[in-house]
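Holo model, manganese (II) ion. Inputs:
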Amino acid sequence: MERTESLPAQTRPPGVAATDPGSVLLPGHDVPLGRYTTVRRLLPQRQRRMVGAWCFVDHFGPDDVAERPGMEVPPHPHTGLQTVTWLLDGEIVHRDSLGNVQPIRPGQLNVMTSGHGIAHSERSPADRPPLMHGVQLWVALPDPARSGPADFAHHADLPRWRDGDLDATLLVGELGGERSPAVAHTPLLGAQLELRGDAPATVPLHPDFEYGLLAMSGAAEVAGVPLAPGALLYLGTGRESLRLRATPECRLLLLGGAPFDDPLVMWWNFVGRSHEEVAAARADWTAGSGRFGVVADDAAPPLPAPALPTTRLKARDRHGDLH
Ligand code: MN
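Output:
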């Protein structure tokens, strides 16, 4: 599917230190999702695999889905993670094996916790807005939540924190005394930031958290670094605050959290700790095991798992090549 908006070319080679010595701009890459959608994958990257427990960041659209199928991701499994879905435009219907059938629209948040296993599908409804634009993120679950029960929550109304021209919507975690109702299993932050004026704003940070920032739309300057859609600005730990400017149409996504120390094996839709765990999840899905259940109200054939690689899957730590 074609995009309605071309993205600005990255002006820095991958991983080159920006003018702020503690930050690194990491360009994403395009990945097909389902049959009709292409997403910009910003995590994991070779140079940086995680930001806090955030282990997967896809930014999709804005795509014109008026005359095209839109998002069509048939039933598929997950283990060891939460999926966090946030839209700027459009509508997607989530269906899962707990029996939830939930449309999501801009300003609302879906948080699905796989625990030991869940299955879901994500589809654009037949009657839908013409544009689709949003992010889907994964959060790695720690023990014991990663082997616990599955859960799904839809948050129709999220808290906002305003400070001067800065307007923050709390997806996950706490900022400025406002806290999201979304359940997190490690210290975590996800917030949409908007600026109503040209003046710079200051966002308070936790020095113990590491942070990353992406522009979902518009353009910004963050700690002196220009930021546009298509890249993740990794900010590291040790900051008390972040200074930023943004155009009024800019919507930024600030991700943060306590560094997540467990090395992960991420393969297909599974997050585990070893080759054996992931191979067992694949075998359970392929066998139609009750571990994942049956997605409600979606009769399409489930997505088959790809073949495992011929070599053992290796656990990777959060750093990637950047240390
Ligand atoms: Mn999924």
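Confidence is low (pLDDT under 50) at residues 1-14. The chain has one domain: 16-257.
Archived with the compound record.
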